[in-house]
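Render this sequence as a predicted structure.
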Amino acid sequence: MSLLEIPISDAGFRHGVGVFETVRVKDGKARWREWHLESIRESAQVLGLKILEKGLDKVPSGFGLWRWFVTETGTRSWWSEGIELPPAAYQLRPATIGVWSGSWEARYKTLSYLSRIQGRREASSDGEVVMLNEKGEIASASMANLFWVKEGKLRTPARECGCRAGTVRRWILERSGQKVEEGRWKKEELDGAEEIFVTNARIGIQPVVSWGGKKLARSGVAEALAKAFWAE
């Protein structure tokens, strides 16, 4: 069944009951494919969906984004040739909309994406926003995970705050060799950050140049991590 044949009765179409993954592909190689599979398996299981992994076996041959979708009526994929370049660096500001830390929409990549779109539209064309949870704790950016350096320590919100277990986040935690503090912090934590950066499968690791209008220095952590990530 193609994307054009999704029935209107499908709960993914009607209510956003579905999950997805975005996989970066180059020269027929899907970056971190096994990690993406683990992620979509977990998400599908939580939502009570059955994933057909045979539909995700054949890796496209070009350079672009390979998107996987699972709904109640099937597993599908969509190939998009080429990848839009991200901004050289992001401007970051607080969002007026937040996430509920225990919700599926916050913790998994679901097809119910309106709060993320709403948050993203509050940002400038070269920016992102910080979304807080119901306790006022930092959860994530609208479409990326957040990391920052403060007092020489690399920090990121704990999964329980409402962030997603993305592949780049996982690489930093497990493979980068960096010691990372996962915890619960209010947005004021970012005021004294020495460096902030955002991560996802499409953009990799990208630096933030300003937070709330205040210019940030670059301590070199994001640059070093990005170099190691793309090399691996």
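Summary. The chain has two domains: 3-81, 90-231. The domain at 3-81 is CATH 3.30.470.10 (D-amino Acid Aminotransferase; Chain A, domain 1).
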